[in-house]
Design goal:
The complex is a heterodimer of chains A (148) and B (505). Chain A is an alpha+beta fold and 148 residues long. Helix content of chain A is 20%, strand content 20%. Classes of the chains: A alpha+beta (148), B alpha/beta (505).
Chain lengths: 148, 505
């Protein structure tokens, strides 16, 4: 399946991926409104990790063998049959945060402001290219099929 | 500390209705203009260090930012301009030479903008380059005085041995910009684009990074007064060699790459200790005459077994024509001339703004002189010094150059906004910097693509202009000043350019 990969040597740490991810997963999908009026503010599902000049955007790897699916006690986290994307059905999520504990990449975040649900990348389900890839100003993020 | 009298040059206007305090501007500004206040969840600006590079404006996701010239006015004075006053303030505070980057920004006449091109009407047909072949391929190097042809029953054979030539698919090269003055990613973008476009780029004085040797057939390597990075492998891998005598932005002045920029990679490439200043002397200490130049030219030809053309680059100065004649006689296969408005990574402002002559006049003078002496065929001419668009290329060729070097235009394609702060090493666009936080902002994949697009677009436009003139090969335009007319020029200028005034038949 197509996944998001990062060329960390070109990640400039601007965090535009986080901003556009947040907007895409907001109610209005309007950038100013999402930031200024939607409270609690939605969380970005991609996180830029930084240390010194090195930075890269990290989001769910949509693992072939996903520990989060194994760990989920309610079946909220599941694999989409059609695309292979790992999704979270927020209504089922009870906020036990086991997925957060087991994710080897630290790609799942707690959402403490809103409901108990977790926040994780859904590859912008239904959209051809995820927004973080579209808006990455330096083409550090790419969305492609790679040999495992 | 005594109060500084300097006021901010720019003003950052932040539209609070648009600003979402996402801090992209804070993260992108190497000059720390944008400051985030966590308590208020608000971004403020400290405009005193804004250089007007527009990095923040370009990346702001809500278009909340505008940067404009600071509206603060002095009492109007045609003599004591704000620039003149603030320059005195700066020097009174620092006691130092004022530095700047990029080419001369003073309002001297731009002759390209006073020259108009011809087109065919009725009496001769124009050519549609989309339907008919149009030749832009250019060969640089010494051409023989005459060609002898041998005839056999079956074939015609050229008997004359040709000197080594460089082949360009379009008459444009990327001018010398050293690894050190610009980033590795900028160099890589130029190298890749040169290969893609079938043209050449020039290493400048900083040597050639080992990972770029694969682009050798599209590389001109420079041998300058500091001799940085010059070794047999460097000379052998290149398509041509260039001896740099002078640079348009700073004729008569050497170069200085501060030690902070000499990283491990640059130290290896330049073959100097890490962290030491790289000082290029003003003159070559072994060149004090045309005869000395001849020795170096032939030393390089000898070192490369006479397989590569040797170019000599000078700044356009008052007596450029006789100097060029001497260079050709010294054995240069290509002479590169860099005009008044040529760019730089760092130069004393006073030199950049006051020394040299415009490239248009230099091309005309050199071409005229070499023709008059009957030696024009012995060397190709390369013109540099602010070629801004394809029309400038066409005009330069019609004035007599073989091809042009573009430096500033190439950097602008890479994102340069001409803020003229290259010498600070804080280039927010990742071009004129070695700071690892900043250099990664230039992705060579994007850079090479943008440069390739630029060269392609200019080439198409050059073909259109040639076609309009009824010419189907660039060769037929070279030195063909009948296709040029001057507007708003006086008689001396027209005579020097060797062109008629608009309206003259």
């Amino acid at each position: 399946m197509k996944r998001i990969y990062v060329n960390e040597e070109y990640c400039i740490g601007c965090r535009l991926c986080e901003i556009h991810c947040l907007v895409h997963h907001s109610r209005s999908r309007k950038i100013i409104k999402a930031f200024k009026e939607e409270m609690p503010r939605p969380l970005p599902r991609v996180l830029v990790e930084e240390e010194g000049p090195l930075s890269f955007a990290m989001q769910c790897r949509h693992c072939a063998e996903a520990p989060c699916i194994e760990a989920c006690i309610t079946g909220a986290i599941h694999r989409d049959d059609l695309t292979g994307t790992i999704l979270c059905e927020e209504e089922k999520c009870v906020g036990c945060w086991m997925c957060v504990m087991v994710c080897p990449f630290g790609a799942i975040r707690r959402n403490v402001q809103g409901r108990k649900a977790i926040s994780k990348c859904d590859l912008c389900y239904g959209q051809e290219t995820p927004v973080c890839v579209i808006y990455c100003p330096n083409e550090a993020l790419v969305y492609e099929e790679r040999e495992p | 500390m005594a109060l500084s009298l300097l006021s901010p040059e720019f003003r950052v206007d932040r539209d609070e209705a648009h600003c979402i305090a996402c801090q992209v501007c804070v993260r992108q500004c190497a000059n720390d203009v944008h400051i985030y206040d966590e308590e208020e969840d608000r971004v403020y600006s400290d405009e005193s260090s804004c250089v007007g590079c527009h990095r923040c404006v370009t990346l702001c996701p809500t278009q909340a930012l505008t940067v404009r010239r600071h509206p603060l006015d002095f009492r109007s004075n045609a003599n004591w301009t704000p620039q003149a006053i603030t320059d005195v303030f700066k020097q009174a505070e620092t006691g130092g030479v004022l530095l700047t980057g990029m080419g001369c920004d003073r309002p001297y006449p731009i002759y390209f903008d006073h020259i108009l091109l011809n087109a065919s009407q009725v009496t001769n047909p124009s050519i549609d380059p989309l339907r008919e072949p149009m030749e832009l391929r250019t060969y640089l190097g010494r051409k023989p005085d005459r060609v002898e042809v041998g005839l056999t029953a079956q074939a015609v054979e050229v008997m004359t041995e040709l000197a080594p030539q460089l082949t360009l698919e379009t008459p444009i090269l990327f001018s010398a910009m050293s690894y050190g003055s610009i980033s590795y990613n900028a160099h890589r973008s130029l190298a890749r684009a040169a290969r893609e476009c079938g043209i050449l780029y020039n290493t400048g004085e900083g040597g050639l990074h080992r990972s770029l040797y694969e682009y050798g057939p599209h590389t001109i390597v420079q041998v300058a007064s500091g001799r940085f990075g010059v070794h047999p492998g460097y000379l052998r891998v290149a398509a041509a060699l260039e001896i740099k005598i002078g640079q348009g932005a700073k004729p008569g002045i050497g170069g200085h790459l501060p030690g902070e920029k000499v990283s491990a990679e640059i130290s290896q490439t330049r073959m100097i200790p890490e962290g030491t200043d790289a000082l290029s002397p003003a003159p070559h200490h072994d060149i004090y005459s045309i005869e000395d130049l001849r020795q170096l030219i032939y030393a390089l030809k000898e070192a490369t077994n006479y397989t590569k053309p040797v170019a000599v680059k000078i700044a356009a100065v008052h007596n450029v024509a006789p100097i060029a004649s001497g260079m050709v006689r010294a054995g240069a296969d290509i002479i590169a001339i860099d005009g008044l408005r040529g760019g730089t990574g760092a130069a004393p402002t006073v030199i950049r703004n006051n020394v040299g002559i415009p490239i248009e006049l230099a091309i005309a003078a050199v071409d005229e002189r070499l023709r008059a002496e009957g030696i024009r065929n012995q060397a190709s001419i390369l013109a540099a010094g602010s070629i801004r668009n394809s029309a400038d290329v066409v005009k330069a060729v019609a004035l007599g150059t073989d091809a042009v070097y573009i430096g500033t235009a190439a950097l602008v394609a890479l994102g340069c906004h001409l803020c003229q702060k290259c010498y600070t090493g804080k280039c927010n666009w990742g071009i004129a910097t070695q700071d690892p936080y900043l250099t990664k902002r230039l992705n060579p994949n994007i850079g090479a693509r943008r440069l390739t697009n630029l060269i392609r677009a200019w080439s198409l436009e050059i073909k259109e202009m040639l076609g309009g003139m009824g010419i189907n090969a660039l060769e037929s335009l070279r030195g063909n000043r009948d296709h040029l007319r001057g507007v708003g020029l006086n008689e001396v200028e027209l005579r020097t350019l060797g062109i008629k005034a608009a309206g003259e038949a």
